[in-house]
Amino acid sequence: MHVFALCWFHAGMLLFLTRKGGCLPCVSCSAAEDSCSGSKLICPGGLIKCGTAQTVNTTGPRTIHKFCFLPSDCIYKGPSTFNVGKSGIVSSRLFCCNEDECNHYFPDIPPISTTFNGITCPACFGLENYTCNEEVIANCTGDQDYCLDMSGTARTGPPVAIKGCVNKVVCDDFKKGMVFFAGVHVHGVGTCLPMKAISGKAGYTPELFALSLPVLACLLHVKILP
Ligand SMILES: *[C@@H]1O[C@H](CO)[C@@H](O)[C@H](O)[C@H]1NC(C)=O
Ligand SMILES: *[C@@H]1O[C@H](CO)[C@@H](O)[C@H](O)[C@H]1NC(C)=O
Ligand SMILES: *[C@@H]1O[C@H](CO)[C@@H](O)[C@H](O)[C@H]1NC(C)=O
Questions:
Q1: Less Cβ crowding at N or C end of the chain, within 10 Å?
Q2: Among 3, 63, 90, which is best to mutate for testing ligand 1, by the most ligand atoms less than 8 A from CB?
Q3: Max intra-chain CA distance, the chain
Q4: Do 27 and 68 lie in a common domain?
């Protein structure tokens, strides 16, 4: 399933909630294009921010998603960048505002760098499952200095598995329990590790020196034994 389907799950859930009434009107639309214009949506209680989520994908279309959001969603605003291997590199940004129908404007997403940065991570992306197969080794680009391996659920329910190279924004968000992936908020657990390219060597290791010293000492000890 295309990741854009997540937006439609989100839209359906919001429309369902909206029938229960609310107050702030926001522009509501989704499109696999640069912009969209849509109807006015009266946001349900709790979703008191208007927002525009924009996503760029190196292997697919730019998508836009305008809706009502929770104030806590607006903390996870990106720009978050994920390289999930075969499903490409996606970068998302969320703009939130408080006025009636204020979500016309959105900040542009910086272009995705395609310059290899010396780091590689196992990568895959799966929807409707907590695990993903079809794993590849992704070549991280630009500021994707971290390897993420997480499974969780999108706001509106479907299980999601995400592995790949990510930028610092994603890792910081992950530690708070939620990431902003392809325009959708995903709660989950797993690991997000800073990686370091070792110059002049083909391999790369996690930057876990403090944690791994006893292990390293043990390995060295084993190595010098006959
Ligand atoms: C990027 O776009 C391609 C083509 O539409 C799609 O197959 C892929 O799932 C998208 N990747 C992500 C992570 O959204
Ligand atoms: C979910 O994962 C299980 C176990 O790996 C697999 O058998 C199943 O086909 C997967 N389902 C989907 C929708 O990918
Ligand atoms: C990563 O780069 C290597 C060397 O250029 C290439 O062979 C490999 O296919 C790349 N991996 C991906 C997932 O694009």
A1: C
A2: 3
A3: 75
A4: yes
Q: Which residue has the tokens 């946001």?
A: 43
Q: Ligand 3 centre and the CA of 160: distance in Å? A: 25
> pLDDT tens for residues 101-159?
899 877 678 889 999 999 999 999 998 889 998 899 999 999 999 999 999 999 877 89
The number of C-alpha atoms within 13 Å of 221 and in the hemisphere containing its C-beta is: 6
Instruction: Please list the residues that pair with 160 across neighbouring strands.
Output: 127, 152
What's the pLDDT score for residue 13?
53
DSSP string, 63-81: EEEEEEE-GGGGG----EE
Domain that holds residue 72: 2-81+88-97
59 lines ligand 1 (CB under 6 A): yes
Q: Which residue has the tokens 């229960």?
A: 20
Can you tell me the distance from the alpha carbon of 136 to that of 122, in angstroms, rounded to the nearest whole number? Answer: 6
| pLDDT winner (highest mean) among 34-43, 142-151, 205-214 | 142-151
Q: Is 131 in the pocket of ligand 2 (CB under 6 A)?
A: yes
